[in-house]
Amino acid sequence: MSDDHVPPQQPIPEAHPGERATRRPRSLDPLELGFTPRKPVPWLAPLLLISTGLRTLLAILFGAYLDKRELQNAFGDHTFRQVGPDGGLWLDYVADLGDGFDATYSVAYLLAQPELEVDGHRLPRAQTLVMGGDQVYPSAAYGAYEDRCKGPYQAAMPVAPPQRPTLFAVPGNHDWYDGLTAFLRLFVRSRDRHFAGWGTGQSRSYFAVELPADWWLLGLDDQSGSYLDDPQLTYFDEVARKLTPRSKVILAVPAPTWVKAHDHPTAYDSIDYFIRTIIAPTGAQVRLLVSGDLHHYARYTAPERQLITCGGGGAYLFPTHQLPERLEVPPRDTLARRSSRTREYELAARYPEKARSRRYGWGIFARLPFRNPGFTTLLGTLHTLLMLAMAGVAADHVGTTEQRLFSVPLVIMLVVTLLSAAFFAKPPSSGGKRHARHWILGVTHGLAHVALAAGGTWLWLQLPFYDWPWPLPAVAAAVLYGPVIGLVASQVVALYLLVAGSFGVNVNELFAGQGIEDSKAFLRFRIDPDGTLTIYPIALDKVSHAWQLNPDQSPTSSWLLPKTPLTPRLAEPPIVLR
């Protein structure tokens, strides 16, 4: 669309709070809050593993059929302008936020405060907030958005302060699990354009914002890394007409494909195509790529560009100790390399620190069984069935018909155990190729469970329970053997995850199974009127787990206060770009 039809920048509609925002809660009861604070997602819960795997497969197989981006061509195609009263701008970036309440609200509370003092720096509240993807877990259901995302942010900033901050959001892979339906309802609206105390500005699942001093913020939606749709490319073609060789661009993308390309070389292709065909012809410089998706803070640097991952908005911690020290972007062995010059990047900073991240991994033994009781119960059930099958063969007597049924499927139980362990090492829904290390580690893991079952069977047969009249042996096994062997088996899984993680296998499961809520992070940007961009990476070592009603009843104050004050710090010294 040409500038003759639409002004080059569109003002952001003012936020109008609803009834829930203006009525402050009198207690922490969900009926008073208007939402239910949720516990962290138990990522290894059996039903959740199955449903998440199915959702991922459906998103991969049918994503093109559910893709609503083609329909967004009928939406507004405005660009927006964000400038503060002094001609500069404060801007926040947060990603991966909609998990457990304590971590999500701890970060939201800091974002909403009028000012933060961090390592001697006085940082006022940002006038613009960018959510960088995965605003909700585990799925994009509207109820999950309410309880895990919108509700906590409503409690943090119930109504808009006088500065009327604005919110823009990039969809991540979890936002895409329903084809983007709930995301569009929350962040792309034609009326009631507010999200808690932030006004919502965008008219599509992607956006372009003009910032002070010819800086530009472009938010991309690449549908879980698949491709950039034609209406989106057309939209950014129009945006590119406003860029000049003096323009400096910040790209907010759903995933740090520069890191993922280290193992999957084609991961960066969509971003490379966008920069090469949309930005580069204008002469503008892409000075910064920023993303969430990996739940930590990491910065790669080169003379012309910074690559920052900051997915610390509330989801479980992802490790940093296995990050590559150097990256080639785009990788040399891809088709994109023939069109774009490869740049080398050095890992300049990470949070949590490498040693601390490695120590977190050892916590799997204590956290796995208690963070994921359903997974432990599943292990206990499978091992009980496997033991009864082995005992039926080892005892070598006939017994009743019902009792003989447990000795029939022994071979099947062994096959199921080995195959389950092999597929756990590389689930079909995960990306990338299956290598020899996946098979070796997976089968070894399965054999370890078979050995555990054999030892458990020998021990069980030393006890008198198996000779009791049927069905007492099965009842005794379920009541006595199942809980104990489930706990022991969970430690076998924990040991496997710790070992496999050192080989780059099941790294996500090693940390998802722990659900670590601490070590959160977000970014606060300052763009000065002269064009200097300063990035403050704010880290929060410990989130709050105890909350109280705020005695300050002013409309804009947060509903809940941490009983122990939060103490943010800088993950590294401020980064300055000019």
Question: How would you summarize this macromolecular structure in one to three sentences?
Answer:
This protein has 578 residues and is of the alpha/beta class. 37% of the residues lie in helices and 17% in strands.
Helix content: 25-40%
Percentage beta strand: 15-25%
Low-pLDDT parts are 1-11
Helices and strands: which structural class?
alpha/beta
User: Biggest sheet, in brief?
Assistant: 9 strands, mixed
Please give the alpha-carbon distance between the first and last residues. 32 Å
Strand order of the largest sheet: 1-9-10-11-12-14-13-16-15
Count of beta strands: 22
What's the Cα radius of gyration?
Answer: 26 Å
Mean pLDDT: 86
**What is the 3D form?**
globular
User: Number of helix segments?
Assistant: 17
Break the fold down into its secondary structure elements and pairings:
Blueprint: H1 19-22, H2 30-33, H3 46-66, E1 80-81, E2 89-94, H4 101-112, E3 115-118, E4 121-124, E5 128-131, H5 142-156, E6 166-169, H6 181-187, E7 194-195, E8 198-200, E9 207-210, E10 215-219, H7 230-240, E11 248-253, H8 257-260, H9 269-279, E12 285-291, E13 297-301, E14 306-310, E15 326-329, E16 343-351, H10 354-362, H11 364-371, H12 373-395, H13 401-405, H14 410-425, H15 436-461, H16 472-502, H17 507-512, E17 520-527, E18 533-540, E19 547-549, E20 560-562, E21 569-570, E22 575-577
Parallel strand pairs: 1-9, 2-5, 5-6, 6-8, 10-11, 11-12, 12-14
Antiparallel strand pairs: 2-17, 3-4, 7-8, 9-10, 13-14, 13-16, 15-16, 17-18, 18-21, 18-22, 19-20
Helix pairs in contact: 4-5, 11-16, 12-14, 12-15, 12-16, 14-15, 15-16
Region (Disordered): 1-31
Keywords: Membrane, Transmembrane, Transmembrane helix
Transmembrane segments: 43-66, 375-394, 406-426, 438-461, 473-499
